[in-house]
Design brief:
Order of helices and strands of chain A: EEHHHHEHEHEHEEHEHEHEHEEHEE
Helix content of chain A: 40-55%
Strand order of the largest sheet of chain A: 4-3-5-6-7-13
Largest interface: A-B, 58 and 58 residues
Structural class of chain A: alpha/beta
Largest sheet of chain A: 6 strands, parallel
Radius of gyration of chain A: 26 Å
Shape of chain A: elongated
Oligomer: homodimer
Number of strands of chain A: 14
Chain lengths: ~350, ~350
DNA sequence: TCTTGGAGTGTTATCGCTAACATGATCCTC
DNA sequence: GAGGATCATGTTAGCGATAACACTCCAAGA
C-alpha cells in the first residue's frame, strides 16, 4: 500500500523492466537469464546479473504464478496435533521440500473429518499449489481425499495401506512385529498390547504386526487393550495390567502410552523390567530417560519425508507412476525396559 | 499445464469473466460481489453468487496478489525443532491465523543464526507475505531480525525482552518466580535451578525469576546448573544434584530436563518428592504421568498466538502501535513432585 | 551467390484480477 | 422540474511475469 519514500520520491520494488532498462536489454532477456534459457550471450547474461544485483531485484512470484498457472508451493494438510510422530514428519518434510526449492504451505485441521479436510484441500487449490501432501492417518481422513479431483498431484502419508494412490508409510507391521518378537525372544510366553485409537491406520498396523508375531511363535493372543495415544490412557491401561500377575510383557503402541504404563506399574509396586517388560513405539527424544530407559521402535521420519517429496516431484513432471507406494522400515532401539520374565 | 478434458473439449478453471458472462454482468461486478463492495443491487448479487456456485468458481489468489501487491499469507520463521514449546506455539498460531482468513507459510531454519534467518525472511518477502512472525528465542536470531527493512509488518515471539518492536512473550520470570516460590513455601531452605541453554531468552528469564524469588525470601542462591532443553542434560545434572545431600528442591527449566532429573534421582535411590522436590516448566501433556506426576508451569500458548496475530493485524491496517509488547502470564500446575523437605 | 538455419534478442499478447474513472439511472432538494 | 448527489454498473488500464512469434545477424552448405 504505502510505498516507501526515499529521497523525496516514491519508490516501489524493482520489476523486471527496471532491470532490463539498467542492463540495456528487453525484459524478456532478463526473464531468459533468470530461467536459465540457453540462448543468451555470456556477456549479456553478466550484464543482466549485474543489474539484478545492483537493484536488489527479486522476481515476483505472484506474477509468475499467474502466467504459468503453477507455484513453487507444496500444500500440506495435517491434523492439528503436537503428537510426536506427525510433528516430526512435518518438520522433516519441510526441510526436504525447502532443499528442493519448494515452499510449504501448511493447513492444519482440528478434526480429521471429511469436511475439514476438503476445506483444507480447497484452500490449497485456491493458492494454486503445485501439489498436496496429506497426512491422513485415519479412515475418515482417507475418505475425504477421495474427493480430490484427479490431476492434482497428491501424496498421502500414513494413509490406508490399501489405497492405490501414491503413498508413503512407515512399516507399522514390521515395527510391531519386531517389538513383539523382541519380548518373546527374551523368554516371555506372550505379549500384551495396548493399542492406539482404533480408527488410526498406524494403530491398526501395529495391532496386526503384534498378532502376527504371536501367531508365528505359537503364543497365545491375549485380549487387546484399546487406548488412544495419550499417557493418560496408558496409565489407565497400566492400572489394569498391573493387577494381572500373568502379564509379564507389554507392547505399547507409542512411547507416551508406555510412559503411562510405567507409572501405573510403579504405583502398584511392579518393577520394570524385573516384573514386567515394556516396549514402546516412536523413540521420542526423552524415551531414553524414562524410568527405566525405554526399549522402543524408531521410525525413520527423514526417510519418509524424502520418499514423499520424491513421489510428489515425480508426479509434477512425469504424470502417473508405476510404483506409487513406498514403505519405510523402522528400527528397534534396545534399552533397559526389557528383561526375561520373573521365575 | 494439461487442462482437464471434459466432453471432448479442453476446459480450464473458470475465471471471473466466465462468471460474469453467465450472470450477465461485467467482471468488475463479480469482483465487487466477491469483495463485499456495498454498491451492488441485492438481485445482482444473488445472480452472481448463483453463477459462482454453478461454475464452482474460485478466485485466483495469484492474480489478486499481483494487482494488490499483498497476499493473505503470513510467513512464520521458526527453529526446526520439535521442542514442545515452539511446536505448540506454532500449532496455536496457525489455528488462530486460519480463523482470521490467513494462510500460514512456514519456513523452518536449522540453525538460528543470522544468515539462515535472513534467508528465511527473504523467502517470505519473495512470496509477498502480508506479514512475518518470527519465533526468535535466542540472541543471534534476534540480531538477524534487525536486518528486516522497516515497513515489513513483523511480530517477534519469545524474543529479546528489551526489543522495542512488536513482540509477544510468555512471562518467564513470573513463571519461574512462582515455581521457586512454590518450593520455598513447601518449607525448603533454598531451591536449585537447572537452566536451559544460556543463549535462549526463555532460559534467561527463568533464571532471573528464580533468583528474584530466592532474594525476596532471603534464601541463599546456590550455583546455577547450566544445561540445555534435553532430558539427557537433565539426567547429567540430576546425577550431580543427587550426590549432594543438601539439595532438597530443584526447579528445572523445562519438563524434559525434569524428567532426566527424576531418572537420575531414582537411580541413586533418592525419592521424589520425599527426599527431593522438583518443579518443571511447560506442562507437556505427559508430565502428569511422570513418576511422580510433575508439578510444573503451564504457559498459555493459545493466548500467545492470539496476541501475536492481533499485533500483526494491527500493523497491517494501522501502521505503528502504541503498546507493541504483550506478555502472557503462565500458571502453576501443582502435582505430586513437591513436598516438604525431609527432616 | 543464394539459400537455410540457428543463435541472440525484441515485440506483443496474455494470465485473472483490482483500481480508477466513466456512464446512466434514480432520487432528493429547492 | 432543473441540478446535484448517490447508486449501480460498465470500461479501460494496469500489476509483473512468461509464451509465442518475429526479427536480425552470421556461418555453413548448395
Amino acid at each position: 500500500m504505502d510505498d516507501p519514500v526515499v529521497g523525496g520520491r516514491v519508490t516501489r520494488d524493482p520489476a523486471m523492466t527496471d532491470v532490463a532498462r539498467l542492463a540495456g536489454v528487453s525484459h524478456q532477456t532478463v526473464s531468459r537469464v533468470l530461467n536459465g534459457h540457453p540462448n543468451v550471450r555470456e556477456q549479456t547474461r553478466l550484464r543482466v546479473r549485474a543489474a539484478i544485483a545492483e537493484l536488489g531485484y527479486r522476481p515476483n512470484k505472484a506474477a509468475r504464478a499467474l502466467v504459468t498457472g503453477r507455484t513453487q508451493l507444496i500444500g500440506v494438510v495435517a491434523a492439528n496435533s503436537t503428537l510426536f510422530g506427525p510433528a516430526s514428519l512435518l518438520a522433516a518434510f519441510e526441510s526436504a521440500a525447502g532443499e528442493a526449492g519448494f515452499a510449504v504451505s501448511l493447513k492444519r485441521v482440528k478434526v480429521l473429518d471429511r469436511s475439514s479436510i476438503a476445506e483444507a484441500v480447497e484452500h490449497h487449490r485456491d493458492q494454486r499449489v503445485a501439489g498436496i501432501v496429506a497426512i491422513a492417518p485415519t479412515a475418515s481422513a482417507n475418505e475425504a481425499l477421495a474427493d480430490i479431483p484427479a490431476g492434482v498431484p497428491l501424496v498421502t502419508v500414513d494413509g490406508d495401506p490399501r489405497r492405490a494412490t501414491p503413498m508413503v508409510t512407515v512399516d507399522q507391521q514390521a515395527g510391531a512385529f519386531d517389538a513383539t518378537h523382541h519380548l518373546l525372544a527374551a523368554g516371555h510366553r506372550t505379549v500384551w498390547h495396548v493399542s492406539g485409537p482404533p480408527d488410526w491406520f498406524d494403530a491398526q498396523g501395529r495391532v496386526t504386526g503384534w498378532q502376527k508375531a504371536l501367531e508365528e511363535a505359537g503364543a497365545e493372543i491375549p485380549p487387546l487393550v484399546a487406548a488412544d495415544w495419550s499417557a493418560a490412557a496408558g496409565y489407565r491401561a497400566g492400572q489394569m495390567l498391573a493387577r494381572m500377575p500373568e502379564v509379564t510383557a507389554v507392547f505399547a503402541a507409542n512411547d507416551h502410552l508406555a510412559l503411562g504404563i510405567l507409572r501405573a506399574m510403579s504405583e502398584r509396586g511392579k518393577h520394570v523390567p524385573a516384573d514386567v517388560s515394556i516396549v514402546g513405539f516412536d523413540d521420542v527424544p526423552e524415551a531414553e530417560y524414562f524410568i527405566p530407559p525405554l526399549t522402543t521402535i524408531r521410525p525413520d521420519f527423514k526417510a519418509v519425508a524424502r520418499e514423499t517429496l520424491s513421489l510428489l516431484l515425480a508426479q509434477l513432471d512425469g504424470g502417473p507412476l508405476d510404483t506409487p507406494q513406498r514403505t519405510v522400515g523402522p528400527q528397534l532401539i534396545a534399552r533397559a525396559s526389557v528383561a526375561p520374565p520373573p521365575q
